[in-house]
Amino acid sequence: MSQASGAVDTARDYYNSEDADSFYSQIWGGEDIHIGLYESGEDAIFDASRRTVAHMASLIEGLGSDTKVLDIGSGYGGAARYLAKTYGCHVTALNLAEVENQRARKLNQEQGLAEKIEVIDGSFEKLPFPDASFDVVWSQDAILHSGKRADVIKEVARVLRPKGQFIFTDPMASDTCPDGVLQPILDRIHLESLGSPKFYREAASASGLSEVGFEELTRQLSMHYGRVLQETVKRTDQLKGKVAPEYIERMKAGLQRWVDGGERGYLSWGIFRFRKA
User: Fold this and answer.
1) Is pTM, for the whole model, over 0.70?
2) CA distance 271 to 139
3) In terms of CB atoms within 10 Å, which of 70, 180, 214, 236 comes out highest?
4) Domain span at residue 13?
């Protein structure tokens, strides 16, 4: 596998850290690490996160026991387990953080899904699979961590079979975002930029993928980060001794910036679907 970009190395180190693993496994519920779909501001983060997975799965044509799915940036493997359990799919879960992958393998085993899900340590900038290996490529809020996002899309197109489907979400800059306003967010997550709907459309088209649809759901981004902030504030005392106080305070400030960016129209989030010719 070729050397990963600096952004990927930074993300790996972050998600492997004890503070990050403790925070995400407890605040997000230990199954999923992505933006949820909320019916109300009181919804549990776990329930909203699972709702995203279920809704995305419902948009994919022909899911079944013969479907081979690749989840890139699979986190704790919640989506992989849902797909394997609900539809009988065989899922390959590729993720860069070994700590998260260890937890995912344990959960797969405990839920009797280890034979349906293969967890692989690796980067999605150079996928370790032959051409035309998968019917579906799935990703949730992970591609932003790459410094080579166009390469990620090329790799997705390469490993998809003809007529294969690519479904993903990613926190993005809006197409009308003014220059410079996202710098505090970028500094917090150690990135030079975010993708945008326009960027992903162009990158997908250049890689031979046709857009099937984009469900614009930016309001959910603001709601999600607001709920995570509420939960973090509420459980700060509970997190003491498990997560460093400085990490918690930085997280609170960072979460508020995501909320503000979404509400001011600087950010975009939704469900993209593409198909290979």
Assistant:
1) yes
2) 10
3) 70
4) 6-276
Radius of gyration for the chain, computed over Cα atoms and rounded to the nearest angstrom: 18
Q: Which helix (DSSP H) or strand (DSSP E) does residue 69 occupy?
A: strand 68-72
Cα–Cα nearest to 251, from 265, 268, 235: 235
The answer for 190, left when phi > 0, alpha when psi is -120 to 50, beta otherwise, is left
pLDDT in tens, 209-255: 999 999 999 999 999 999 999 999 999 998 888 889 998 999 999 99
Residues whose CB falls within 8 Å of the CB of residue 110, separated by 6 or more in sequence, listed in order:
none
Residue 127 lies in a domain: yes
Rounded Cα gap, residues 275 and 163, in angstroms: 6
In a domain, 1, yes or no: no
- Kindly give, in sequence order, each residue whose CB lies less than 8 Å from that of residue 46, ignoring residues fewer than 6 positions away: 28, 29, 31, 32
209 falls within a domain: yes
Joined together, the tokens standing for residue 86 give 């609900």
Distance CA 29, CA 47 (A): 9
CA–CA distance, 147 with 164 (Å, rounded to integer): 25
CA–CA gap between residue 258 and residue 225 (Å, rounded) = 6
CATH number, position 54: 3.40.50.150
Q: Calculate the alpha carbon distances from 263 to 144, 167, 168, 258, 267 in Å.
A: 20, 25, 22, 9, 8
Please name every residue paired with 134 in a beta bridge, in sequence order, or none if there are none.
160
- Distance separating alpha carbons of residues 8 and 270, to the nearest angstrom: 22
H or E stretch at 154:
helix 149-159
DSSP-based three-state secondary structure for 210: strand
pLDDT single digits (tens) 182-213: 999 999 888 999 999 999 999 999 999 999 99
